[in-house]
Amino acid sequence: MTCYNRRDLGLLLLRLSTGGVLAAHGAQKLFGWFGGHGLEGTGQYMESIGYAPGKLSATASGLAEAGGGTLLALGLATPAAGAAAAGGMAGAAAVHMPHGFFAQEGGYEYAATLGLAAAGLAIAGPGRLSLDHALGHVLDRGWMVPVALGVTAAATAVMVGARNRRVRQQAEGEQETLFEE
Asked: Is residue 2 domain-resident?
């Protein structure tokens, strides 16, 4: 009989809580569950905050959250799951950054916490109470951690950079319009 240690139980709790919250947020975006707006509404919102095309951005964000969250909760493909979720949360944090840190002011604290928890799980691994462990870690090799986090960081930087340029151009256009009036 296997005796699980505190680390295994702690990682299970962290995976279930972080993964569950992420999966629920992704389901809001993809399916409109839990009071969400589905792909159409989320796509319109994504366009309004500078992520274009909106529906594609909503799909990518929803998949990163729902897929990454579900895989984290299961402890399956943990490096890729954690990286995907962390990338999605970095994109969300970029939107909230102008409002400061604290969530009650619209800040990035919540998105950053979820993203860092997901990245931490990608690095630490899922523990023995996971599908990765049950499958012999075929989808959780040491080399996969830096690759998954690196690829996700690069893709996130491109997406957030493009979004920030759109937002900046829109703000400059609005300023020019004000001066013309």
From this structure: no
Domain membership flag for residue 33: yes
Q: 10-residue block means of pLDDT along the chain (181 residues)?
A: 86 98 98 96 96 95 98 98 98 96 95 98 97 97 97 96 92 72 61
The number of distinct structural domains making up the chain is 1
Cα-only R_g, the chain: 18
pLDDT, residue 79, reads 98
Return the pLDDT at 8. Answer: 96
Question: Is 54 contained in some domain?
Answer: yes
Q: Which two tokens stand for residue 93?
A: 């944090």
What pTM does this model have? Answer: 0.91
Other Cβ atoms within 10 Å of 120 Cβ, number: 14
Residue 1 in any domain: the answer is no
- Domain, as residue range, for 171: 7-180
